[in-house]
Preprotein translocase subunit SecD
Amino acid sequence: MNRYPLWKYITVLVALIIGILYTAPNFFGETPAVQVSSAKVTQKVTTQTMGQVEDILRQNNIAFSGTYFQQNGPAGTVRVRLANTDAQLKARDVLDNALNPVKDDPSYTVALNLLSASPDWMSAIGANPMYLGLDLRGGVHFLLQVDMQGALAARYESLTTDIRSILRDARVAVESVNNADSRITATFASEQDRNRAQDVLRTRTNELSFTTSQSGDKFLLNGTILAAEIARVQDTALKQNILTLHNRINELGVAEPIIQQQGLDRIIVQLPGIQDVAKAKEILGRTATLQLRMVDDSPAAQNAMATGTVPFGLESFKDTDGRTVLVRRQVLLTGENLENAQSGATSKLSNLRSTSRWTTRARVFSVIPPATISANAWPSFCLRMARARS
């Protein structure tokens, strides 16, 4: 005899069907795939890129069972599902050669990946397989060490620049301000100038402790970073590297990666299901530091560059167009002064723009009010992207 109303049986049946439906993708397994993502901020991956990838594969007679475009914030990726690993490796090589004609300056990252073999209609309703960890699925495990000495050296260099600017603004006569052996040393001709500089710097800089000394007839003022500031610099460097690693790993399309701090200067990165270990290591190795320097485009610098020589105090770099530019060694701003940055497009879609917000430590921009500077009077800056140690 039926003891329960019919609607209860129907509810249990519907719940059972939904449970089976959303459990089924775990039994389909995974198929080989190739993923295409952008290797440059200025190179966007769109649905047009997906069409370009399909055309390249058809021209090379490589069969594929589906292409998918996914937008993760500002970054887009294209994934191509293939029948077997042989077709996967061939497709990776063909796409890499076609999309990156200049190997030393690739525009796209082409990596091996895995996609769920469940039908597309299941993915469309959100029936995705359960993401397994490194212990059940396999993958790669990285242990990265942050270059804390490099972070402190950059902070000393930044403070050295700040001290020069402060003393110049206060009209304090100083012979030199140098940074060496984790110490900033300012040299003065008289004790009066040194004492005045010490009073000015103590009110303008909270990161340094100062001591005085004398070398012959020169009066020295020595500054060292306080322990609290050292801890802040190290903590900032660690957090910036973790954030950058998150952004880099998005290029690999890894589901639920593990990125966490270990100790004071190490970061653990676990990437479940990664096939292309070399590509993962390459992408993680692109973690960068940001430095802003003045470009020297004076006639003397241009003449020296034409003869193939680099004047003292300058360095040679390539800009985005491949042209050689000379920049000063003095670092005006670093990544630790950057609070937020976003890229986007102007009203003309062909023009890109970058909007950034800097901390109050970025004193270099506070000398002249921006409203008083014409568009042609802005100084040129060079962004130096230096490979970080890992």
Summary: The domain at 134-286 is CATH 3.30.70.3400 (Alpha-Beta Plaits). The longest strand covers residues 324-334. The mean pLDDT is 79. The longest helix spans residues 227-249.
